[in-house]
Write the structure tokens for this entry.
Amino acid sequence: APAAPAAASAQAQKREADDSSDAPSKRGAPTNFDSATSARRPESDGKRPVPSDDGADRPKESGPYHANHTQRYKEVIAFAQEALENCRLHADKQHEENTRLEIARNQEMSWLRKQIKHHCYQSKVRLPQGALERWCFAQYLLSNFEDPMLPAQPKFDSGLYHELRRFKHSREEPVRAVVNNIAKDCSESIARLETYRAAASQLPALEIEVEEVDDVFRIKCEKTSLDLRKMHVQRLRRRYELAGSDPALFNERLFRLACRYDGLGGAGYQGALPEAAFDVLQKHLGVDQECFASPFNAYLPKFCSAFADVDGPFGSQGSFMTCDFSQGGAFEANPPFVEETMQCLAVKAHEVLSSVAAPVTFVIIVPAWSDTPSYDMNHESKFLRQELRYSRHEHIYKEGYQHRTAKQYRQSEADTFVFFLQNDAAAQAHPVTEDLVNEFNLAFVQPEERDSL
């Protein structure tokens, strides 16, 4: 079992250092990309077929571990179908919980990180950076949402299996053992949280302490201390007030929010477009909502996010997977760089584009992994108006830990695709023009703050 709750700031700083140097590790990321390119929508009547078993139809830039590319390709498609249906059935289960339980959940995530490292060490399996976070992102979409962060009753995860198998000398049985063991460990964490949930509800509320030193807003509860930047706390307060949330509960809800994202870790999964790039999308396309954001990194007036229970008081519209797009609109979508999540985005975006008569625009920002079904769906889409590609180290994202560190930008460690998808109504009302592309290129590749890197 995990140790008693302890200070979390040191853990976060260590994860920040670990995360800052790694490229987004993908379950099959292609390598050796060419320079940035731009392409208009190809003349195509629809979706690309699933690759044949002999690999003849495989995209040219297939990932290094996709030895069984066809099987993995089909698994991701099936996963997205199941996950979207599951989200529709269980999305309303998230509800606000108490601070004691949030601290306990943070400690369970720390324990799970230690466990997966231990299992990989014992089985002599190499562990990629961020593998546990990717596993949680994917498995959570198939869970019953009884816990707002950890997946209940996780299944055997083929994505984690293939990710661990991609390394040389990784054998099948040890890898299967790691995948099964982390699922078992997560079930144990869920069981402990369920037991603690019942007990915590009977205990008095914990006191939240706040200390402000220079540019640091330090928020504490028992032995857990989290440092935030004052500027971001001020932004959060404005979003909190605009959402009409109870002012008396601000510090308590802020602590739970910070504790949740500290437990989540993975700064690379919390990055965002530079502000200047958002401004270009607003100016030319009327984009006013982010599909994958958090209260910490959201820039546009409206945003969807992962955790309705802690994000809701700060203005979140809830999960993208269940958000209502029936009225149309223009949306920016920069999902966690996890194949399963990217496929869910592609499927739902095309459902909306195909069914809504009002103007609909999706600007999708994803890593340049051209051996995935989501890439095929976007690249061959009849709704594709423009496809841009940016080379690694030549464009910038907002830092995932922007709310905790003075460093606000980081160079991308992987190539990036940007897909502009529009139905006919949107293309007529707000076309993707050459001026838009030129301004977006400048904002994404050379923002004003680049010199500060």
Remarks:
- Residues 126 and 182 are 15 Å apart (CA to CA).
- The mean pLDDT is 82.
